[in-house]
What we know:
By secondary structure, this protein is α+β, with helices and mostly antiparallel strands.
Amino acid sequence: MRKAFTILAALVVIVIVAYGGWRYMQARRAQHAGLLTENIGHDGDLWKADFTARIPAPEPTVFDAIRNIESAHSDQIKAVRVISQTGNSKVVDMDIAGPGGQVVTTRLEFQYLPDEKKIVYKTVDNPLLDTQAVYQFGDEGASTFIDYHETTKLLQPVPVPDGVIKQVIRGIFVAQLEGLKQSLHIKTADQTDTGDD
């Protein structure tokens, strides 16, 4: 019995340390990706997230990089496949790194509104959640201000703490920023060129 308690206590310590390390790494990722502000909350099963970010590239370049989402890759975005494309609309399957190293595939429909400097997207046929989001771009000359708003309705009960859901929502947005910066070949001061580009 004492041995089982010791093993259980060690596992709890490992989980706590791993979670703390994961949170620290998430904070560093967000800083490097250009995240400025965030606000995530919920009312029952309806989650709302508001983020602002700045990307050091002109607005038309940032808009086009998101329009060509299939070129986006990062540690979190494993692959993007275009399912259909017509006019200012595109449907993609996006493979995102999920909890426990699993890959989660989500189908998204994008609407591109260049005259409004806006991109709207939503989940398609997702049995777990219904997400609708808007990227609004502000042209700052050499950089682009991004104002992002998302609503996500959980369609099934999720037996995890609110903090985990917040981290997933935040992680997806940060992964999008990282993929955007990678596709634009933007590096932060402490990143070194490994020659893998």
